[in-house]
Write a structure and sequence with these properties.
The protein is mainly alpha-helical. It has 16 helices and six strands.
């Protein structure tokens, strides 16, 4: 049934009374805006291929070659996996290259609208410039985090399932996971091998080790040459135990394959390094308005400046050195990994607390994000 309003009654306008749903001016990015930013980055095929090749391709090819060589000639080439391979790939390859590819993605995301002439069109739509910048953060991390996780998972899987059956301690095959008492007992049962091959100091015995073309091989001895005295078995066992005790600190840091806790900590550390590289690159790319210069600066920061600052202590500038984000992320490196850049981790020349490292990382992330957002909000369309 249709009702007709009475004469003189004001006509109602429900559309005018309803609240406006136009959120283009909101500084908070919508899901649709984030999805659009994600698709824009994903459709850049050259960039995506580069990201996949570096984060997944390099470790996969390296491990595949090692698996193939071990399968063809196991006596010549050792197992493809293991703790040493894991530490080399994570602290040496994924750590550095993960930061670089993350910075590449960040610098691209921060400057793509300007380089392609789309910034003016986006501003004309009435969308908040701050929302346009913030939408790039979840969009870029949605691409970066899975790639780093996949590459790291490949490394973990091969290093665990293709690990050696025994440890190699200075060329000697040693059972893994022994306590100090068990190592002493094992060393006493393999006295000559331990005394000859493991590094030691103050060994008061004359023990022939190996063979040489002109006669007996080198001797470990403190007795006068020419009158060697054959040690008794009890003396050999006692000295081998002493050598094992001298090498205990080195032995307890050796593993056949990484533990679950180490893999979890390393994965989080690598994701943090990649996230820092992306966010700093995003802010720098937005600030400069171009990708090339921003990317070069990020590479110099990671490959040149950070290793120098970690290795060298400059008097009166230590606090400035602590402010470098690479020093802070290297400080958070899991303790069972080798030293980042050959100078970070446990043997820091530049001492700082974990709290300081976290504050430096947050300052870089927040500071560069503010600079990038400010430049986007004030840039002429």
């Amino acid at each position: 049934m249709t009702t007709v309003p009475e004469a003189g009654a004001p006509a109602t306008q429900p559309d005018a009374m309803a609240p406006s749903r136009d959120r283009r001016g909101s500084p908070i990015p919508t899901g649709a805006l984030i999805a659009t930013r994600f698709l824009e980055l994903r459709k850049r095929r050259g960039l995506m291929i580069t990201l996949v090749l570096v984060t997944i391709g390099i470790p996969s090819v390296f491990l595949a070659v090692r698996l193939l060589l071990h399968a063809v000639a196991p006596a010549t080439y050792g197992p493809a996996g293991g703790y040493q391979t894991y530490t080399g790939l994570t602290a040496g390859v994924l750590y550095t290259f993960g930061f670089i590819v993350a910075a590449t993605l960040g610098c691209t995301a921060g400057s793509v609208d300007l380089s392609e002439g789309m910034f003016r069109h986006l501003v004309v739509t009435g969308r908040s410039r701050l929302a346009l910048y913030l939408a790039r953060i979840p969009a870029g991390l949605a691409i970066l985090v899975p790639l780093v996780a996949i590459g790291f998972t490949v490394v973990c899987a091969v290093c665990v399932f293709a690990a050696p059956t025994t440890l190699s301690l200075n060329g000697i095959s040693v059972p893994a996971g022994m306590s100090q008492t068990q190592l002493d007992t094992w060393a006493a049962d393999h006295a000559t091998e331990v005394i000859c091959d493991l590094p030691s100091t103050n060994v008061p015995l004359d023990v022939p080790c190996g063979t040489a073309p002109t006669g007996p091989g080198p001797r470990i001895s403190t007795t006068p040459p020419g009158n060697p005295v054959a040690p008794s078995e009890a003396e050999l066992r006692a000295v081998a135990t002493r050598v094992a005790q001298q090498n205990w600190t080195f032995y307890e840091r050796q593993f056949r394959y990484p533990s679950e806790s180490l893999m979890i900590k390393t994965g989080l550390w690598l994701e943090l390094e990649a996230a820092v590289g992306f966010l700093v690159g995003l802010g720098l790319g937005s600030l400069l308005g171009q990708r090339t210069v921003a990317l070069v600066l990020m590479i110099v920061l990671e490959v040149v400046l950070t290793p120098i600052v970690i290795r060298v202590r400059i008097p009166h500038l230590e606090n400035l050195e602590r402010a470098v984000v690479g020093v802070a992320t290297a400080h958070l490196e899991p303790g069972q990994l080798p030293l980042a850049f050959g100078g970070g981790g446990r043997d820091f020349r530049l001492t700082e607390s974990t709290t300081t490292a976290i504050c430096v990382i947050l300052a870089w992330i927040i500071g560069w994000s503010i600079l990038g957002a400010w430049r986007m909000m004030t840039r002429d369309a």
